[in-house]
Amino acid sequence: MLTERPEWTHEPDLASRRVGGSVVWANDEAFAERENLIKPGPAEFRPWNFGHKGQIYDGWETRRRREPGVDQAIVRLGLPGVVTGVVVDTAFFTGNYPPFASVEAVAVDGYPSPAELAELEWTPLVPKSPLAGDSENFFAVSSRRRWTHVRLSIHPDGGVARFRVHGAPVADPRLVDPASLDLAALENGARVVGCSNMFYSSPSNLISPGSAAVMGEGWETARRRGDGNDWVSVALAGAGVPRLAELDTTHFKGNAPGWASLSGRLDGSWFEVLPRTRLQPDTRHRFLVPEPRELSEVRLDIYPDGGMARLRLWGALTERGRTDFERRFTESAG
After folding, report:
1. Which parts of the chain span the membrane according to its record (predicted)?
2. Cβ–Cβ under 8 Å, residues 8 and 166
3. Least C-beta-crowded within 10 Å: which of 4, 37, 155, 250?
């Protein structure tokens, strides 16, 4: 177990409810519901907040086990992918946290039931390892395979506030139209590779699935007091030719950027994709790309600073991009 926050925690949480994750089964949730495990925000605690089952915890908590065994919860990843690390967060669980935990994973097509999942052969990602109470417990994962489900086992019982599964999404090419897709979408395998400032929130929010429900689900920088501007760069799902760009400032009203531009590159120098363009607050902007050309990385510059809810880049994969897209899937299929 690591004690300092590792670099891989900056990668997306593949299990988060925000990206479509779901806790499909738990053998016990007598004190607190399993669904709390994958809530996007940090756990909260209200002293002397009692219900019919005792103190109400913002997490998953099982009853005291009186017989041998372990308690388990299965999470269907909202974004199937390669797991680089997991966080077992026991926030506010002090005298009732599990002393040990382990994590396993499986890759399966379709939408199996909990009973069908139980019959599969699960692969260990984290062996039985000690946990600290009221703490984030970090465990690096070395597997390079693509997984669709993970199973958290706590030994023997107790409470876990949050369960984070960080990694790189890997899309199934059988479920994607290479001629028309969002080249910058996290769920298609795009990833943030550079950012000038992430003071308020993660730039990965920009390319997350769905629309932002609140301002905190976008990317927002600190107020810039000097010269220059803020920016974020995204490695696309594959090399492609974009036709339409969406720059969405929804929920950003007094803190939207004044202007934005897009640049791209394939192998060498940056070139203009969308010239510096004025933006409006709390608005979903859609712009046709003036001169579509192949690129594998896009850079969004905002002037001078502020917040953006989403970045979308609609277009088609080129032959090169399609080859890389499919190879990423096959190489991680195990």
Report:
1. none
2. yes
3. 4
Q: Locate 122 and state its tokens.
A: 């699960």
Give me 154's structure tokens: 């706590």
| Strand 284-288 with 230-248, pairing | antiparallel
CATH 2.60.120.260 domain locations along the chain: 7-169, 173-321
Q: Is 40 exposed, middle or buried (0-12, 13-18, 19+ CB in 10 A)?
A: middle
Burial tier of 186 (Cβ tally within 10 Å: 0-12, 13-18, 19+): buried
Question: Residue 18 CB: number of other CB atoms within 10 A?
Answer: 20
- Residues 266-289 have pLDDT tens digits of 988 999 999 999 999 999 999 999
For domain 7-169, the CATH architecture is Sandwich (2.60)
Q: Residues 6 or more apart from 107 whose CB is under 8 A from it?
A: 80, 145, 146, 147, 148, 149, 333, 334
CA angle (169 as vertex; 332, 37 as ends), nearest 5: 115
